[in-house]
Write a structure and sequence with these properties.
By secondary structure, the protein is an all-alpha fold. It has 27 helices and no strands.
Length: about 500
Amino acid sequence: MFNFNSWRHKSLLYFKIVTFSPISQNPLPLSLYFCTNTSHSTSFAVSYLIHNFGFSPLFANKLCSTYSVKFKTNQNPDLVLTFFRNHGFSDSQLRDTIAKAPWLLTCDPIKRVLPKFQFFLSKGASNSDIVNLVSMNPMVLCSSLENQIVPTYELVYRFLKSHKDTIACVNHNSTFFGDRRVASNIRLLTENGVADSNIARMLKTHCRTLQTRDMLKLVEELKDLGFNPSKATFGVALNAKTTVPEARWKEKVDTLKKWGWSDEDVLVAFRTQPYCMLVSIDKINLVMNFWINQLGWDAMALVKGSSVFLLSLEKRIIPRAQVVQYLLKKGLRKKTASMIYPFVMSDKLFLDMFIKRFEESSYLLKLYEEKLNLAYTTDKTCLSNGVGLIKMFWKHLEGSLIVLTSIDKINLVMNFWVNELGWDAMALVKGSAILLLSLEKRIIPRAQVVQYLLKKGLRKTNASLICPFIVSEKMFLEMFIKRFEESSYLLKLYGKNSILLRPGTKLACHD
């Protein structure tokens, strides 16, 4: 626990004098200075941060310099800390808050902070809601209550029509109140015919979409592509365009074109199911490879059936494909029938239409369940390599990045790492960044090289398994290929495996 009150009876800790820049002509709104501009006031503030919060001297100096924090006594900072503690802030939350906004120590909390807390409480927010909001983004306390917080809150409430939903929205998007683009973007969408229900959906699920800088440009682009602003797909398309960087978007388009699609085909797929462009390149390749090379089906069927890319390869696509393929082979389903319909319907409807109605229902059900059970068995195998594995992933990597990794991708990487290579899944706990790498372009090619080196005793068995995958291409070649006598063979091995999933290459999918 941090000692917030022991400063009073202890002598001032004096650190090396640092030269600070003059106070900015435009200080932060909450920086209410109550001392003169002296090096003594700065050193006192630095020492206070070190002593009360455990910050390093370097970090404390940086905070005071960056935010022009100066005070000569502990009276006001102690008052601020007491205020926040009385409103439910824990020591760790206070530490996080002050690390992001040290200027709070110089403000008058009764005048500057309390009215904002009272406003949120009046709308039904709990103390924990307020603590979470401020801990995530203390800058909300820098926003004007009358000019920013109240108008933004009322604007969001207009669409969500519920204080509970509005509080939840702002709590998950704490930068809303300090971002003037939110109001202007919502106004722009309304003027362009976007339905209130669409905006409400964006506020609930894709809030960051409303903070984009180029809203007008995106709206015009989507309208030119044929999206109707009054339809729900417009909001989904807008989210896709704001989520995927332009360079990454081009990579996905190029990937689809390698499988035979044209630029127009990509646009049709996007118009049909905008979420398809949020699917990873790995997932696109895996679905295309299975659809074309394993099943022998036409890639063009997926143009207007791009929803298939959103489905689980192992739990939906592969099991159902086995049934459909059998029916086609036996002449029990017309070749001209939709190839997409069997994959997008509910489980119950699929069983009724594609299994139970046929005489071979027992065999079809067995075929279907074998593939389905295999998928769930793989899940358990991958996730049971150590109690709390996923929790440990969260500890060593920002949660948001793991959330962006699909379950299919996690399963595929874990299956390759554990079952194909025979390596320990626990190595991925502190090396969970590997889950973000391309399986085909990075993990598989490099793994073949590392595996060879281990087998030949050219790399120690206790050496890091993670390092070879996260180093740059140039460094990997220098460290793991060129320095060995077998460099020619290793380079050939590496090059051979780097083209594993190009169009026309088959990949085994638990057949």
